[in-house]
Amino acid sequence: MEGKREREMDYKRSSKKPSDLLLWKIREFTRALVEDLSNRRSPEILIDRFRNYCANAKANCSCSSDLPKGKEILTLQKESNVHRIDVLLRILLIVQQLLQENKHGSKRDIYYMHPTVFSEQKIVDQGINDICILLGCSRHNLNVVSAGKGLVMGWLRFSETGRNFDCISRPCTAHHIPVYVEEVEDIVSVAQYILVVEKESVFQRLANDQFCNTNHCIVITGRGYPDVSTRRFLRLLIDILCLPAYCLVDCDPYGFDILCIYRFGSMQMAYDAKYLRVPEIQWLGAFPLDSEKYCLPKQCLLPLTSEDKRKTEAMLLRCYLQKEVPRWRLELEVMLQRGVKFEVEALSVHALSFLSTEYIPSKIRAHLEILSGDCSFAMKSGA
Amino acid sequence: MNFASARELCLYLISSAFQRCRLSDDLCRLSVILKQSSPASDHPVVQISISDTGIGSCLDDFRTLKFSGESVGNDEQWDGVISVTNTSVSDNEIYHYQLNLKERDSARRLTMLPSNSKNGVKFSGTEVCLSIFISINVLRGEINRFFQKILILKIPSVAIELVTEYGSLLGSKVENLFLANSFNPLPFSASNLERLKSGLEDYVLKHGNVLNKQCDLCFQSLENLKIGSGTASHAERNGNGGLVMEVVIILSEISERTSTCFTSCSARTEVLYFRDFSTCSISQSSLKALTSIDWRSYGLTLESVKDQGGYVEIEWENLPPHTRIDIVLHAYPKQYPTVIIPSRRPKVQTDGNLIKKAVKLALDDLRNKHAGVLLSAHSLKIRSYAPDLAKTISGLILCSNDPDFQHECFSLLGLQSQGVESEIVEASIKEKLLVVIDMNNRKPQKSKEVAPFLFEDDHFNEPGFQDEECEGEDAFSATPMDI
Question: Record's PANTHER family (chain B) (predicted)?
Answer without folding.
Answer: TYPE 2 DNA TOPOISOMERASE 6 SUBUNIT B-LIKE (PTHR36722:SF1)
